[in-house]
Design brief:
This protein has 199 residues and is of the alpha+beta class. It has four helices and seven strands; from the N terminus they run αβββαβαβαββ. Strands 1-2-3 form a three-stranded antiparallel sheet. A two-stranded parallel sheet has the order 4-5. Strands 6-7 form a two-stranded antiparallel sheet.
Length: 199
């Protein structure tokens, strides 16, 4: 019976310490929930803004793509669509092309030269939306026949005053549209000579 009569004289002090710790943890928990909610709202806002900007860019690039495709193919129509329009930020892109005199079809069903020209149209549509000071193209004309090559070179003549292009090529027709030509030769083994020519 004696042991029940002992009093913990430190109980009030311990209680105050625990209460203070409890209040601190409760406040931390509330701050954490507030931060989570704030972060979710920020992510939602960023996603919405990203979606708006992406759709704006997509429509602009699609318009340029139609123009350049029609220019390269001397007619026809093309567009690209999202594979999942409900989730534009996670969606893929599918290109549908209709060269002159043909029905509209997937890019996979075009001939090699048509695929190259359609890809170039898409590339230059992106390029036109977000121009850059210079661009390096490595043997971009390799898969083009003479007719398609001339169409590509006509496009290059129209846009070369806006951007500096560095074309790596073995094609003499492509070299003819260049302002400068730089070449390399190896007259003797392991010795490379560089030459340049202003046209």
């Amino acid at each position: 019976l004696q042991k029940y009569k002992t009093v913990n004289l430190m109980a009030e002090e311990e209680y105050l310490i625990q209460e203070k710790r409890y209040d601190f943890l409760t406040q931390q928990r509330a701050d954490l929930h507030e931060s989570i909610d704030s972060t979710k709202q920020a992510i939602k806002k960023i996603d919405q803004e990203s979606k708006t900007q992406f759709m704006k860019a997509l429509n602009e690039v699609n318009r340029y793509f139609k123009e350049i495709f029609s220019l390269l193919f001397e007619g026809g129509d093309a567009e690209f669509k999202l594979t999942d329009p409900d989730q534009p930020l996670d969606s893929g892109v599918e290109i549908a092309a209709q060269p002159p005199g043909k029905k509209i079809q997937s890019l996979n069903l075009l001939s090699g030269g048509e695929k190259s020209l359609a890809s170039l149209a898409f590339f230059f549509a992106l390029f036109r939306y977000k121009p850059i000071p210079f661009c390096v193209l490595d043997e971009i004309d390799a898969a083009l026949d003479e007719t398609n090559l001339m169409r590509f070179l006509n496009l290059m003549k129209k846009i070369k005053n806006q951007t500096q292009f560095i074309l790596i090529t073995h094609n003499f027709k492509t070299m003819e549209v260049a302002d400068y030509i730089y070449g390399t030769t190896m007259a003797e083994p392991n010795v490379t000579n560089i030459y340049s020519l202003k046209l």
